[in-house]
Amino acid sequence: MSGFFERVGGWDLQLETKKDFEKCMERIYAWFEGELLDRPPIRFARHNAEFEMKEYDKAWNSLRERWFDAQYVVDSFAQGVRGKHFHAETFPMFWPNLGPNVFAACYGVGYEFGETTAWADESFSLDEYDFPGIDWKSEYLKKLDEMTDYALESCSGLFMVGYTDIHPGLDWAAAMFGTQELLLAAYDAPQKMRTLGTRALGDFFRLYDHFDDKLKKARQLSVTWMNIPSFQKLHIPSCDFSSMISREHFREFAYEGLKQEMEHMDQNIFHIDGKHVALHTDDILTLPKLNAIQWVQGVAEDEPIMQWVPYIKKIQAAGKGLVVDVTTDELDDFMDAVNPRGIYLCVSTKNEEEELEVIKRAEKWAARSRS
């Protein structure tokens, strides 16, 4: 075992698609610890590639049937990564995806599948719901288990396997009861509203640990949709619902649940989706087990990234890491304005040559910061 793996309690996956796995993980762990090695970590992706329409070579009777075809989903992913090399901290990683509200679906709320995402519909009434807890025999949990198990059978030497996107707290409550009912409850039923931030945490911890144990027994890592892996327990907390509430209501209804949610983990990267969620940044930064923030700036008037440099520096000054999307066109200006320490770059690229050029620019950026 190498010195790095021994220090962090890690292991080598020996991926043919990722020969530099150990060095990449070393950069990521330096980032977790607020340190900088030869350069900051970089993830490459084509912008919104996961949402592009594609041709399927198989027909299904419904969209739900397509999403539930575990063997096809996993085999298609494996076929797509075979023979490729993934540059920088971009990992070949399959995660079982049934949409962002699948946790609420496991409680029996209506669930609808679209081409590229899924959502809760036919919400429950907050006044009438008696909180029976998660349905551990849910078809969604069975399907997530099936996808995970089949991926673990297929992944050896080729790709990593992660866990699904799980949202407890007020985002879970909004899927369960509807956004409008929750907003009204903040004023009409504050005591009930306070309980929603923590109501599903017991089920969340049990579900998270179920998949974490399954993955770790197979010598996989803790990783999900953000594609940042850990040898311990990594989580992506969020509260998109907070974009519609005041700072006072965030502290009253959301904060405690998020705090408990994160205490269960070893690393936490908070997903801040846009400027309205960012209004709560000062409170988010006080969460005790926060490692980093993923800043999602939005589109149109919220682009380009340079207008958010003061915000980025504020997070750095608080001693927290930052995951940030930067285009190749604005990368030089960004590097001139921001210190690389604590930055995890996500860069949209067109081809392999562009990726290799970005890596060279990031290495020079890190070298300049030391001079």
Biggest sheet character = 6 strands, parallel
Radius of gyration: 21 Å
Q: What share of residues is helical? A: 40-55%
- Coarse structural class: alpha/beta
The total number of structural domains is 1
Provide the low-confidence segments as ranges.
47-53
How many alpha or pi helices? 15
Q: What is the CATH topology descriptor?
A: TIM Barrel
Shape: globular
The second-level CATH architecture is Alpha-Beta Barrel
The ordered string of helix (H) and strand (E) elements is HHEHHEHEEHEHHHHEHEHEHEHEH
Number of strands: 10
Cα separation of the termini: 34 Å
Helix/strand layout:
Blueprint: H1 3-8, H2 21-32, E1 42-45, H3 63-67, H4 70-81, E2 93-94, H5 102-105, E3 110-113, E4 118-121, H6 139-154, E5 160-161, H7 169-177, H8 179-188, H9 190-196, H10 201-217, E6 234-235, H11 247-263, E7 267-273, H12 281-284, E8 292-296, H13 309-317, E9 321-327, H14 331-337, E10 343-348, H15 352-370
Parallel strand pairs: 1-10, 2-5, 6-7, 7-8, 8-9, 9-10
Antiparallel strand pairs: 3-4
Helix pairs in contact: 4-6, 7-8, 8-9, 9-11, 14-15
3D architecture notes:
This protein has helices spanning 3-8, 21-32, 63-67, 70-81, 102-105, 139-154, 169-177, 179-188, 190-196, 201-217, 247-263, 281-284, 309-317, 331-337, 352-370, and strands at 42-45, 93-94, 110-113, 118-121, 160-161, 234-235, 267-273, 292-296, 321-327, 343-348. By secondary structure, it is of the alpha/beta class. It has a single domain (3-49, 61-370), classed as TIM Barrel (Alpha-Beta Barrel), CATH 3.20.20. The strands form three sheets. The chain has a six-stranded parallel β-sheet, with helices on one face. Strands 2-5 form a two-stranded parallel sheet. Helix 8 (179-188) crosses helix 9. It is globular, with a radius of gyration of 21 Å. The protein starts with a helix and ends with a helix.
